[in-house]
Amino acid sequence: MLYNAYELQRNWLAGVSTLANIGVELMNNPRNPFAYFGGGEVLSSALEVFAHASAPRGKPEFGLSETIVDGEMVAVHEEIVLRQPFGQLKRFVKAGVEGAPKLLIVAPMSGHYATLLRGTVERMLPKHDVYITDWRDARSVPLSEGRFDLDDYIDYVITFLKHIGPGAHVLAVCQPSVPVYAAVALMNAADDACTPKTLTMMGGPIDTRAAPTAVNILATERPLSWFANNVVTTVPYSYPGAGRNVYPGFMQLAGFMTMNLGSHLMSHYEMYKHLVQGEDLQAEATKKFYDEYRSVCDMTAEFYLQTVEVVFQKHALPKGEMMHRDVRVDPAAITKTALLAIEGENDDISGLGQTKAALDIATNLADDHKRYFMAPKVGHYGIFNGSRWRETIAPIVEDWISAHN
Questions:
Q1: What is the side-by-side strand order in the sheet with 66-69?
Q2: Which of 29, 65, 190, 206 is in the most buried spot, having the most CB atoms within 10 Å?
């Protein structure tokens, strides 16, 4: 019922958005005499903001066709090197460039597509052979493909690392910090030849007992049954994954928007002012951000519920109680993979200390294989995107990889 109501609203807004766009074109048409009357720019700008906010969105493109290597422009193309039912391993191939350190970027499965990390990929491309986990929208996966939970996520990470081969490095952004840490611990314990040389975790909920945020508190103040009964719904029959139980991306987006509603409203007001004043470049930057931010996808109910229980309610990993199928995940088993934990001072999703905990629980790892960095005045999104990421944080990640390559 919930999903059907959302689809009804989405289709209605799509029609209204189209009408608003038509209004914008009419108001900006030089042959329209009413466009020259007072208030024309104000009305067209308001319509444009509304049309953009209400437009339906699909999966965005990475759109990274070139990069600069050693001062030379190099062509880049995407290649799917391994396909799995719930995600694929994508590689950004640089024409004529070989021998760079192999870097697997593990994108969050938390309501957004992997393209949310476009800026992360773009910044790491010049010096690395970059791969990324391109997770599928759960509503697009037929029921015949089976389930996908937190254990499967860990299996996928290990499978992807084995496909990439020995000597790889891993960068986990936010949510995947826990399952990737678990995968690395399991590979260290098994003395796997494909155990990564480094693992960088950025804004990850390793131990949410440290500086709990609004997200963490919500997950702990209600029983797991509440989440199963109130936020899990069934994919409608208009999608390939019809009948699958999911946590819808639109609910995750609504939660994030509500957390910072004031700043989102101000961003749209600023966009409106830029349009009125003819500052198209500034308005376009805001549009691009929200085009990506509002492009959401569903995750399977079993993955969502298991994550809530294991990561946010039981704190199983830092307690040494996390299980992967029948095997205990032992942080002390990490002795070969160098760990870098990065946090943002103003992160309102993963509070200070939550990611740093990854270093503390790796009790058998040498001190020179551990590093912590706190990025001043940086929020959650700024850890992996924007100027602070490009100019301050990325160089630290690059140096860490280089030092342990």
A1: 66-69, 72-84, 87-94, 129-135, 102-106, 169-173, 198-202, 338-344, 370-375
A2: 206
Answer for the pair 398, 371: CB distance below 8 angstroms, yes or no: no
Instruction: Judge: domain 68-219+298-403, CATH 3.50.50.60.
Output: no
Better-predicted residue by pLDDT, 233 or 398: 398
Burial class, 398, CB count within 10 angstroms (exposed 0-12 / middle 13-18 / buried 19+): middle
pLDDT per residue over 287-309, tens digit each? Answer: 565 566 666 778 899 999 999 99
User: What pTM was computed for the model?
Assistant: 0.82
CA 135 – CA 147 distance, rounded (Å): 14
| pLDDT, greater one: 23 or 285 | 285
Between CA 154 and CA 135, with CA 337 as vertex, the angle to 5 degrees is 30
- CA dihedral for 18, 22, 28, 34, sign (positive or negative): negative
Give the residues across from 327 on adjacent strands: 324
Query: What's the pLDDT score for residue 58?
Result: 62
Distance CA 241, CA 246 (A): 10
pLDDT in tens, 109-146: 877 889 989 999 999 999 999 999 999 999 999 999 99
**Beta pairing partners, 92:** 78
Lookup: tokens for 356 = 């740093």
CB 169 within 8 A of CB 106: no
